[in-house]
Each structure stands twice: as structure tokens, then as C-alpha cells.
Here is the input.
Amino acid sequence: DYDAALISEGGGVHARSAKSVAITPQVRAALGLADDVASLTPTDLVNAVLKAPVDLVYNGGIGTYVKASSESHEQVGDRANDALRVDGRDLRCKVFVEGGNLGCTQRGRIEYALAGGRINTDAIDNSAGVDTSDHEVNIKILLGLAVTEGELTTKQRNTLLPQMTDDVAALVLSDNIYQTQVLSVIGRVAPQLLDAQTRFMHFLEKAGRLNRDIEFLPNDDTLAERRTAGLGLARPEQAVLLAYSKMWLYDELLASPLPDDPWVATALERYFPTLLRERFAAWMPKHPLKREIIATQVTNSLVNRVGPSFVYRLGESTGARPHEVVRACLLAREVFGLPALWQQVDALDNQVDDAVQAALLNDASQQLERGTTWFLRSRHLGEDMAATIAHFAPAVEQLAAALPTLVEREEAARIDAERERWAAQRVPAALAQRAALLDSLVASLDIAEVAAQSARPVDAAAATYFEIGARLGLPWLRRKIAELPGDQHWRMLAKAAMLDDLAKAN
Here is the structure.
């Protein structure tokens, strides 16, 4: 069944029932075996393949092949693979992918991740299949409406469905790319997020939504040890928390009025392929699951960018309800033009180090957090979202172009230094400039308000704003507050309170 011409030199296909398999020099080198290994039993060979010093091991079969050293084979519950199963700490690959369900135990994943390996969970690695099914069902429901109303015959529907294959694949892959991307991005700042994520887990437990023992999330003693060691949650643990955060936020949004907002509801069209948007948009508002689709779209688009604890943390620090935090976040996201910035960062794949991309995305998240907090305390939160975005976005863009000439000397020097730092890491000039401005651009919201209330041009209001701030030493004070540690809850609240007082003084 195999084309022998496609098999690498020294490789082969062997029956699992063979008594032994001859090990060629090429296989010996690929698997990192000792020079004197001439043959192995099929079971020992599979065991060696699992422990190969390679970039990636792809597990696509049935069975559990990796456990933790602290687990017994009996605990795994897969007797057929007891003889070949390995411990997470013994894996030598850089990445382990679970194309099959439960290729590793969760404890095995965590052990491997804590040893430096890259691994998600089987739910994350297989989520594209579930996402595809979700799209398929909802597309068929939508077209069913058109069939019922006589706009489409069943035969025409069946002809139409295959035409959307590539579009659906692109939509699904987009969801899944950003879901795994956020795990990588927050993984780089995991120690700083540990306190907030611990509080979020406590909240979910008290709400009866999470059992840490069942999900193998660390208990408080282990979390304290991680904090002391300067560690955060391991990537498989982050993946579990990400899933629970999405389930919680989805329920919160579905029970709120947010999916009914006309601007938010535009997420419904973006869920469907282009062909349906062009020909069947009139039926979309009639979709019986439209609120569920909108809530899912908004949840994914937000959590896949800011991580699992963002909404809960801002709600806890401001007293806002989850749907209010999301509304404010959507406003800040659009006003600051972050979708375009994110796309520019994504376009740098394989052009800059991924650590540079992660740093750019984390900086954007910090600006998004400050903008979200601003809108949560603003009278604009409950106003028409489209009108609010249309009011603030032009002012932000106008100020982005003029900021380096308006801010005080030290801040201008900081912006220049930041721009040069990004440029030195091969970030394109326009993106480097925008990234350097992120920290200062939040002031544009206050400036736009002052300009509107005083009926003055935005640039005139900005000049006055920065001149007064410089004379009072407010930029220096803001920098000093920003330098304070904020990795623990009460420190974060103290910083937020000081920044809030400063914003009010401005």
C-alpha cells in the first residue's frame, strides 16, 4: 500500500506482529539510539519513536501513549499500550501534537510542558473538526430557511454547499490559529498572570463551574510553589483555563443584551462564508441560533486575543459586569485600530522572531486594557457603538500622526527609542512607529473628549493637554506608576487606582 519511492533511505514499513525489526544506521541516528542497537521489537521501536530527539511528534492513533512519571499504567486505563507508553519527562521532541483523542494524560502533558516541551491539549489540537461541524450545521440551518421560503430548492442547496468548502476552511483555521496563538503569547508572561489566573480559578470554583482536581489544575500549594519559582501555569493548564473562560463568558454574553446590539450583531455575518453573505444576508437575522452564533463569535474574537482572565480581572477591578467589559473592550479595540495592528503583526510570521511578535501583541493588549478601563468609566459606554467609534477613531488617528511633536521631551525620546528598538528587530517602519506610540495613545481619548466639549480642534486640545501635563510633571508621575510591580492582585488594584486618579486629574 506504500510507494517505496517516498520512503527515506534506511526507512521502511514493518508489521507490529514481527518478532524484531532491523535498525538501520539512518533510523538509529533519527531516533538517537546507541550505536550497538541492531534490532528492536516493534513495541520497543514505537517506544523509541515516541522519545526521538526531533522537532515534532504527531500522535494520530487511538490510545494513550504518554503519562506522567507520577502516574501508574493502571491509572491511565489503556492496557493495550502499557508496554510502549513513555513518561512526559522522557519526551525529547520540541512539540507534541495530539491528532487523536487522549494521546497523553493531562498530567503527562503538564510534566512534558514543565520540562520545556510545547504541547496543548487534545481538545485544542482537534478543535478545528468541531468548529467545522459547527459551521456546517449553522449553514444548513440558514439555507433551510431559504428552502422553506421557496427561494432555494434542495437540489440547489446541495450544489451550493461544496462551493463553500475553502471559505469554511479559512474561517475555521482562523479561529484555531488565534486560539493557539494566544496560548503562546500569554505563555511568555505566564508568571505575571499567575495571580490573576488564580483568582479567576477561585471564582469559577465558587460559581460551581470548575473542579480543579478533575481538570488537573494546580492546587493553592502548588500555585504558591510556582510563584516562588517564578513560574506560571503550564501551557496545557492554560489551555484548560482558556476553555473554561470561553464557556463562562459565552454564557454571560448570551444572558446579556450585548448580542442584540446592532453593531455587535454584525459578527453574525462574519461567521458565514462570503457566498452566503452576498446571496443570503436577508435570512441571517432569522437564524434561530443567531444570538448563540454572535455570542460565540464575540467570545472567540476577544479571548483569542487577550487570554482567559482578562474580562474577569477587569470586571473585578472596576465592578463592571462581564458584558459591559466586553462592550468597552470592543469599543477600545476599534477606536485604537487594533485589528489592523494585529494583522500587521501576524504578517510578520517567519520574518521576525516569534518573541518579537508576542511582545508586540502583549503591548497591544496593555493598550486595549487601558482603553477598556477608560470606556468602562465613560458616559459613552451605553451610547450607540457605531457612533462612538466614529467619534473617537478619527481623533486617535489624527493624534497618532502628531503625537511625537506634541509630547514633552522625555516622552518624545522614549517614543524614538521604542521605535528604534522595534526597527532593530526587523519590524517594518510603520508598525514600529505605531507600536512605539501605544503607551501614549491612550491619552487621545481624553483629548478627544476635551476637544468635543470645548468645541476646539483636536490638535489644539492636544497641544494644551500635553503642555499642562509637562508643566505639572504628569508624564514623569505616570511613568513611575507604570514601573511599579503589578503582578499581584492588590498591587494591580493600587496601580490602577493611581492611574485612574491621574486620568481624572488630567
Observations:
- The chain has a mean pLDDT of 92.
- The two ends are 74 Å apart (CA to CA).
- The first strand starts at residue 21 and ends at 22.
- The chain is about 65% helix and 5% strand.
